[in-house]
Design brief:
- It comes from Alkaliphilus pronyensis.
- Pfam families: FHA.
- This is FHA domain-containing protein.
- Keywords: Membrane, Transmembrane, Transmembrane helix.
- A six-stranded antiparallel β-sheet has the order 2-1-11-10-7-8, with no helix packed on it.
- Helices cover 25% and strands 29% of the residues.
- The protein folds into two domains: 40 residues; 96 residues, Tumour Suppressor Smad4.
- The protein is of the alpha+beta class.
- Strand 7 and strand 8 form a beta hairpin.
- 16% of the residues are buried.
């Protein structure tokens, strides 16, 4: 009788181990799939690339953001680039495409928008490699396509 119970417990234990391994593999697969979805971008568009280390930020931020003709940045739901940083205003900054060049302007943010560590007061043209600082986040402007 004890031998039968021993065999049953043994097989249940082995089944639990296999289920645990299956769950771990499934989670790893879903994480890789989420990273791949996040990592897809239109390679023809200029973009903003995150400079900060993501693990030091207390909110979610993507590694890069494609820029359209008009791209708004802020904490609000209507922003194209939405950042949940407490130092970023609801409507913080706007990047606009005009005659083949991109321009950035601060749209009345409380903490300001910085371009190459200098606070901008007016509309400024972006150049390849410019550093854009917003709250705790810093991006680099990449225009040339690889």
């Amino acid at each position: 009788m004890y031998q039968i119970i021993s065999w049953i417990v043994r097989y249940v234990f082995i089944a639990l181990i296999y289920y645990f391994i299956y769950s771990i593999i499934k989670l790893i697969y879903l994480d890789i799939q989420a990273i791949n979805k996040q990592g897809k971008r239109n390679i023809d568009n200029p973009y903003l690339k995150l400079i900060n280390r993501k693990d030091r930020l207390d909110f979610n931020v993507h590694e890069f953001y494609d820029l359209g003709e008009v791209t708004t940045i802020g904490r609000g739901n209507k922003s194209d680039i939405q950042l949940a940083d407490k130092y970023i205003s609801t409507n913080h900054a706007k990047i606009t495409l005009d005659e083949g060049s991109y321009f950035i302007e601060d749209v009345g943010s409380v903490n300001g928008t910085y371009l190459n560590n200098t606070q901008i007061e007016d509309v400024v043209e972006l150049k390849e490699g410019d550093r854009i600082g917003l709250g705790q986040v810093e991006f680099i402007f990449v225009k040339e396509v690889e």
